[in-house]
Every structure is written in structure tokens, then in C-alpha cells.
Amino acid sequence: MTAAIDMGVGQGGARSTLDLEELLATRLLVQGNSGSGKSHLLRRLLEQSAGWVQQVIIDPEGDFVTLADRYGHVAIEGERTEAELLGIAARVRQHRVSCVLSLEGMDAEEQMRAAAIFLNGLFDADRDFWYPVLVVVDEAQLFAPAASGEVSDDARRLSLGAMTNLMCRGRKRGLAGVIATQRLAKLAKNVAAEASNFLMGRTFLDIDMARAADLLGLDRRQAEMFRDLPRGSFVALGPALTKRPLKVEIGVVETSARSSSPKLMPLPEANADAADLILTPDPQEFFRPIPRYVQPAPRPATDILAELSKPREIDPEPREPSRPKRVELTPEEREEQVASALADVLDKDDAAFRTDSELYQEFLVRCRIRRLTGGTVSLPDFRHRLAVIRSGADEEMQASEIWQKAISLSHGVTDDLKALFLVLANAAIAGLPCPSDAAIARAYGTHSVRRARRLLAYFEEQGLVVIHQDRLGHRIAAFPDLGSETAPGNPDDSAAERPAAE
Fold this sequence. Notes:
Elements: E1 4-9, E2 15-19, H1 20-26, E3 28-31, H2 38-49, E4 54-59, H3 67-71, E5 74-77, H4 82-95, E6 99-102, H5 108-123, E7 133-137, H6 153-169, E8 175-181, H7 189-192, E9 197-200, H8 206-216, E10 233-238, E11 242-250, H9 274-279, H10 301-309, H11 331-346, H12 356-369, H13 379-391, H14 395-398, H15 401-410, H16 415-430, H17 437-444, H18 449-461, E12 466-469, E13 475-479, E14 484-485
Parallel strand pairs: 3-8, 3-9, 4-6, 4-7, 5-6, 7-8
Antiparallel strand pairs: 1-2, 1-11, 9-10, 10-11, 12-13, 13-14
Organism: Rhizobium setariae
InterPro entries: AAA+_ATPase (IPR003593), ATPase_Atu1862_pred (IPR014588), HerA-like (IPR008571), HerA_central (IPR002789), P-loop_NTPase (IPR027417)
Domain AAA+ ATPase: 24-291
């Protein structure tokens, strides 16, 4: 079963949809500064998917409890004992009830502990109750901080471990994490790295824009676009959203939060007795306790020295939260996975006519799906691989010395012409007929045969090839530097075979 969730309007006025079934397997990361529309986006997602999947929301501000009135979510106050939270979490999974864990009014450390205990309760549910659940965590940087803050190390480890379990190991237990954060720099990297779908909103700091651009496979120059995004607009990428980055304007919602953005309001009319209103005390104020700061009495230096001289008990080294073991790939296995991802990208009818940047962004998505992280292939390397594959050269040809010389010659042309140059070089080295105008145009990524002929003339002007004809008018491309030439080929042969890689 496939559920297409309507998220709003994409580029060109088309509806932008989210594949809910794919989301359950790949998880989602939402990023944007305060006021960019993250909560609105999450509310849209929750409302549109409420009838399809069970939902659990970790709500630090109590904004999502209004879902209870229209969609039947159960509001759970976070100020409970550990046993109560664990029991509620187990029953939530058993009875498949959508709920909102409201942490409003609690301090940061209490929020982290309550959220961690509740998430661990969902995670540790019996196998019989591993039904799919959409687990939405708003303000995720509070529960998975990148650095220690004012909270205790114990609370931070507990909360970070629960968030890591949700994003790394939750899929097999039916838990699909959807996390939203104001700043990627404040969110723990091992939590953010497990998401395969991204919705990036307005942000202004260079470090956050650069990290968002890296996640979307964009150039650093394109990162400036995140400053110009209007409120409620996000750049989407991922297998559940779109194969290449697209701007999405989030649609309207049916419910509203209890808190809203500040609105300008007219001031009340001037009151002549305004001074009396604020300076005259209320009689009840005299009965309220006045908080006072009491300066602690100084401790004698001898007591401090005696305490410092006591031997300290060394606590056992804290154990890191259990994480799934990643299978280390050998260079050969990794190269095989990269080749497979590249083959998936090129196995499309329109691959020959799409830009290299579009194909590269889809290639990065394929690599994430295969868990290939850590700088898989750079854009220049990707373009080189693309050109070699499109040339049609087999493994034996690529291992030959003359082919390496052809590769060296190809560095003298621009990246967009490299594939075409290698197509001609492969035909010359292998003694194949010279490609037709249609085949040359396709190798360049165009339908114009006139442009194909102009490109051949350009190669000849650069001294790379010599074009001549046989007595039947068939074209021959000779490579002086390679000492080889193609067999005669009909330039008007529209039925020329397409390159095998495409």
C-alpha cells in the first residue's frame, strides 16, 4: 500500500507529495530558523497522515496538543514518574493510540529525561506490537545536542542514546523518526546522519547553510538560497520526496497551535492615571513571598583542603549507547556499490539529456540509500566516470595503454565535451564506424544534429581529430595523437545504436 501525502505546492504549481510508506523506511530531517515554518510543516504532515499511520509527538512547547480535538490524539503530560512513562509508552504501542507527549513547563533536564524514558519505552515494546509509528520530535536539538550544555552529563547521555536508537535502530521496530531542529550545528551528527529525506527552510548562519547544502548535494554557492526562502517554504530532497532538490511551499493546516507568532496590536488609549495604575500596589502583593538571594556562608579553607585531599572514587567508564554495527566495506565492495548507484542513475530514458548536476544529486541519494557515506565521489570524479561510461568502452579497452592516452587527451576539452570526445576515441581505437550525427548529439545531451556537426568542427579546429570522407560520403574521424581512426560511418543514420550505458 502506498500513501501519497499532499505537502503543498512545488515548482511550476504542481502538487508536492510525500510517499508515506517510503518515509517509514528512510526517516526525515527538517531544519529552519525560528519562524521559518517548521511547526507548520510538521502539523501539515501530521494532519495529512493521521488517517494512515499511528503518530507519537514529542512536544517541548505543548503546541501539538490541539490535534486531540480533531484527530483524537491523547495528550500526555510529561511530569510523571519513570514507571508511569514506561507503562504508558508500552500501552501506546500495544493499542496503537496516537498521542502527544507535552513537556511544557518543565526545565531542560526534566524534558530530556521524560522524552528519553518515553522513547525508550516505545523502543523496548514487545515484538508483537512493532506496528509502524511516526515519531515526530520537535526542537530535536534539545534532546540530541551536539555539545554538552547546562544539563547534567547523565541526562544528556540518556536523551542522546534514546534519540540515536530512534534514528539508527528504530526502523526494524516500526519507529520512523521525523526530527525538526532550528540549527543543524546544534544537532548531534550521528542523529542527523541517519535521515535520508530532508526539508531545509530559511537559515542565515554560514555554518548551517553550508551543512544544509552538503546534505542536499548542492554547491557552496547555492547555499545562499536558504537566506532568501520565505516563511513556509522548504527545499526538499530524498527518496520519499523528490530525487533532486525542489522548492516546496507547505500547504494550509486545519488546526492551530496554542501559541502563535507575535502580532502588532494598537496600544490602549492614554490614561491620565497611568502612574497610579502601576505604582499603587495590589493588597494581595503584601501576602506573596518575596524571593531573596541568600549569600552562602564562606567555607573555611581548611575544610576545602581536607575535601580536596580525600581520594576520589573513580566511576566506571560510561558505556556508549548501543548502536548498530556498520559493515566495513573493502575498497572493491565499495567501488561495486558506487558503480551500482551510478548504473541506477543512468538507467533512465532521459538520463542522456539531463545535466550532470541533476544526475549527481540523484547519485548522492542512491549512495545514501546504500549507506555509502563519507565523501563517496566528488562532482569532478562523477563527471569523469559518467564520460567513461557513456563512451561505451569495455573493461579491456579501459585497461589498455592507448585508452589511458585518450583519457589524457580528453583533459584538454571542457567537462561537457569529454563524453563526446571519448565516444569518438573509443570508436577509433576499436575500429568501429564513426558515430552518426544523432548519436553524437545524444552523447552531448542534445537533440540538435546541427550542434553535433559544429562540435566535430570544433574538435578539428583544436587539432584533436581530422574529419574526412570515403568515396561513398561516409564520415571518418582520425586521431593523429592516437594513431587510429574510425571505420566509415553514415552521418545521417538515425537508427544508430544508443550507447549501452544509457
